[in-house]
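Lab intake sheet, docking and co-folding queue.

SAMPLE TYPE: protein with bound small molecule
LIGAND NAME: zinc ion
LIGAND FORMAT: SMILES
REQUESTED OUTPUT: full 3D complex as structure tokens
PRIORITY: normal
SUBMITTED BY: R.K., bench team

The fields below were copied directly from the construct record.
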Amino acid sequence: MADAEAPGPVRTCVICRRRLPKKELLRHVRRLDAEADAWTLTPDPRQTAAGRGWYCCSRPDCRERMAGYKAFRKTSRGRVHERKSSG
Ligand SMILES: [Zn+2]
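RESULT FIELD (auto-filled):
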């Protein structure tokens, strides 16, 4: 049954853990920063990039903390080799 009140997809802000409509969240995707040899999060305003997304709500506090958000790396398995400082 079609329901006009049906909510759209809901996602959780990774910072404050609030559940919000996906369209109210800013999607981020991971991107390999070759220079730093590390994954970084980059905004995906069109929400079309492939792969897993991390969502951040519009609170200034959350946006600020999202810039320094590192926990996503825990789920970024493989691919990147941790470079050991040897000399
Ligand atoms: Zn938030």
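REVIEWER NOTE: The pocket of zinc ion is lined by residues 13, 15-16, 18, 57, 59, 62 (CB under 6 Å).
SIGN-OFF: pending second check by T.M.
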